[in-house]
């Protein structure tokens, strides 16, 4: 339903940190089903781990956050470039209290 260029009109990430290649289903403001086409040439496989490539969990989480950013968008913006940064970069944050152990 959405190709990479259409995705770039909605979210601000760009290569090599754009973690979505296509969107199969999209209901603005409700849901999105997105795909990342992973192959051995990805930059992170060079060191994670040689001979046993595994996509780092933080990048999987980033891909999910980018997909969620698409799902949160109620209407497709005309151009990300015309929006001030504070308006086009919603942040997903989580803070968990930790106690220091001695």
Please tag this protein with its features.
102 residues, alpha+beta, 2 strands
SSE arrangement:
Elements: H1 4-8, E1 22-27, E2 31-35, H2 57-72, H3 85-88
Antiparallel strand pairs: 1-2
Account of the 3D structure:
This protein is of the alpha+beta class and 102 residues long. Helices cover 25% and strands 11% of the residues. It contains 3 helices and 2 strands; from the N terminus they run αββαα. It has helices spanning 4-8, 57-72, 85-88; strands at 22-27, 31-35. It has a two-stranded antiparallel ribbon with strand order 1-2. The longest helix is centred in the middle third of the chain and has 16 residues, at 57-72. It is globular and about 40 Å long. The chain starts with a helix and ends in a 14-residue tail after the last helix. The model has no long low-confidence stretch (mean pLDDT 81).
Q: Return the structural class.
A: alpha+beta
Q: What composes the largest sheet? A: 2 strands, antiparallel
DSSP helical segment count: 3
Range of strand content:
5-15%
Brief characterization of the structure:
It contains three helices and two strands; from the N terminus they run αββαα.
